[in-house]
Amino acid sequence: MSSSSYYTLIPALPALPARMDQLKELPISILQLEKRLGMLEAADQRQLALALRLFQRERDGDEELSDRDEVQHWQQELAQIQDHALKQLLEQHLVWRTLIAAQRYRLAGQSEGNGFQGFGDLVWLIRRHWQESDFSLGGRFPWLVEAQSMLKKGQSAELEQQLLVWFWQQLRELEQCNPFSFTAVAAYRLRWSIAEYRLRWQGEQAQEQFSRLVTSALAGFKQDETLHSVTEAG
After folding, report:
1. Is residue 182 part of a domain?
2. How many angstroms separate the CA atoms of 95 and 143, rounded?
3. Would you call 62 helix, strand, or coil by DSSP?
4. Is 112 exposed, middle or buried (CB count within 10 Å of its CB: 0-12, 13-18, 19+)?
5. Which structural domain, as residue segments, surrounds residue 147?
6. Cα 174 to chain center, whole Å?
7. Helices (H) and strands (E) in the chain — how many of each?
8. pLDDT (tens digit, 9 = 90+) per residue, 90-119?
9. Which helix (H) or strand (E) holds 144?
10. Long-range interactions of 154-162: CB distance < 8 A, separation 24+
11. Quick one: which H or E segment has residue 147?
C-alpha cells in the first residue's frame, strides 16, 4: 500500500481516547472498521491478522495445545511480522504473558520451574529463580510483586486490566510516532480490540454487581417477610 493511501485511510478511523479510562463507547463498529481496513493491500491485511492473533488472550484452535507447542506457534507467527516497532511491542506483550503464566503455575502448586515453558530469553531466569516472588526480575518488571499479590487475592481480571492500560499507552505512542503508516493502522486496530474487551468486561462487572444487589435485596425482603409472619403469629 502506498504511503499516500494511508492519508486516506487513517483519517477515516475515528479517534480512540488518549487514555483507556476515558473510554465510554466504541467510536466505530467492527463491521465499519473491517470495511475501512479493506483498503489495505492483501499482504498488510495478513500482517494485521497475525498481529491480532498474537494479541488475543484466548486463541481459537489453541485450546488443546501444550505450552511448548503454543509458544512455538507464537514464535512462528511473530517471525512473520515485518514491522519492527510493532514486532517489538508484540514481543513485550508475550513476555508479560509468560511472566503472569509463571506466577499462576507457581500459585497453583508447581514447586519447581524446570519444566516451565514460556516465550522469550527470560525463561531460563524464571526457571532458575522460581521460588522468588519476582523471579529476580523486579528491577526490570517492578509490577511483578504487586501482580503476585493480586493473583493471590483472586484479582486476575483486575490485574489484566492494569496491564492493558500499559499496552494501550504503548500502542498510542506507536500511532503517534508513526503517522500515516501501517504501524499506525495496526496500533489503532489493536487498541480497538482492547477497547472492545474493556467495555465488555465493564458490562459483565456491572451485571455481576447488579445481580449481587438483587440477590441481597431479595434476601432482605425474605427476611423481613419471615419476621412479619412471626409477628403476626405472635
Report:
1. yes
2. 13
3. coil
4. exposed
5. 41-200
6. 17
7. 9, 0
8. 999 999 999 999 999 999 999 999 999 999
9. helix 144-152
10. 156/104, 157/201, 159/100, 160/57, 161/198, 161/201
11. helix 144-152
Residue 172 belongs to some domain of the structure: yes
Fill in the amino acid letter for 165: V
- Classify 10 as helix, strand or coil: helix
Q: Is residue 91 part of a domain?
A: yes
What grid cell was written down for 207? 451485571
Give the integer Cα–Cα distance in Å for 35 and 42. 14
* Contacts for 210 with CB less than 8 Å, ≥ 6 apart: none
Residue 162 · residue 198 · CB < 8 Å: no
pLDDT band at 232 (very low <50, low <70, confident <90, very high): low
Is it the case that residue 203 has pLDDT exceeding 80?
Answer: no
Is the confidence at residue 225, as pLDDT, over 70? Answer: no
Residue type (1 letter), 90:
L
- Asked whether residue 21 is domain-assigned, the answer is no
Give the dihedral of Cα atoms 140, 145, 150, 153; nearest 10 deg: 160
Look at the chain and report how many structural domains it folds into.
1
Q: How far is CA 193 from CA 150, 205, 209, in A?
A: 24, 18, 24
Q: Which residues contact 197 (CB under 8 A, 6 or more apart)?
A: 57, 164
Cell numbers describing residue 152: 493471590
- For residues 26 and 194, what is the distance between their CA atoms, to the nearest angstrom? 10
Quick one: cell of 16? 480512540
